[in-house]
Amino acid sequence: MSSFGSFLALGLRHILTVEAADHLLFLATLILAHEPGKWRQLVVLVTAFTAGHTLTLALATLNVVQVDARAVETLIPATIIIMSVVNLWTWRQGRRANDPPLKHRPRLWPRYAMALGFGLMHGLGFSAVLRALLGAEESLLVPLLAFNIGIELAQIVVLGLLAILGTVLTIGLFDRRGYVLAASGITLGCATQMLVSRL
Fold first, then answer.
1. Residue 99 lies in a domain
2. Crossing angle for the helix pair 21-32 and 109-134, nearest 10 degrees?
């Protein structure tokens, strides 16, 4: 398997499978704290995460860096746990349903830094998957590029669906704070179970 299209499809399918549940949960934690209408902030956040995992995906696939794949798989749920706790902490002491809209303004740069740093970890996880798919493939550049583009396209779809879901739920069922707290509790619980099972 060496065609661009084949590895593009593999990248797309990888994100949309059960095996990528940890990555999808992390994407959910990123978008949970996104304020509806502030798309620029979300773009910066996702770009930071993408830059991180693209860098380590390339470095690890090209054998510039080598890591223990099992250790990476164990640490990825920890990134979800940390982001979930950040969401819970921020919104626990933040906006109430009757607060003025501008009262709650958490600093954004720590969240961007975490997205970049944790993206590095997720990229190492992607590289293990790509390495297994490559087998005896001699040329790495085309598969690496195609696989990463597939991942990015799938991420855009997932993030769009999560943003729509969050908007619908906060309009019809929950206030924003209640939604973030409930969803962050769910991601925290799922990630903790993943971490324990991998340990």
1. no
2. 160
- How much is the CA Rg of the chain, to the nearest whole Å? 18
Where are the strands (E) in 83-160, listed by range?
none
Burial environment of residue 8 by CB neighbours within 10 A (0 to 12, 13 to 18, 19 or more) = buried
Residue 98 located in a structural domain: no
For 17, the domain range is 4-93+104-198
Q: Could you report the per-residue pLDDT of 18-46, keeping only the tens digit for each?
A: 888 899 999 899 888 666 667 787 788 88
User: CA-to-CA distance for 14 and 164, rounded, in angstroms?
Assistant: 22
What is 17-55 written as a DSSP string? SGGGHHHHHHHHHHHHTPPTT-HHHHHHHHHHHHHHHHH
DSSP string for 144-162? HHHHHHHHHHHHHHHHHHH
* pLDDT per position as a tens digit, 84-111: 998 888 877 655 444 444 444 556 678 8
How far apart CA 14 and CA 10 sit, in angstroms, is 6
To the question of pTM greater than 0.85 for the whole model, the response is: no
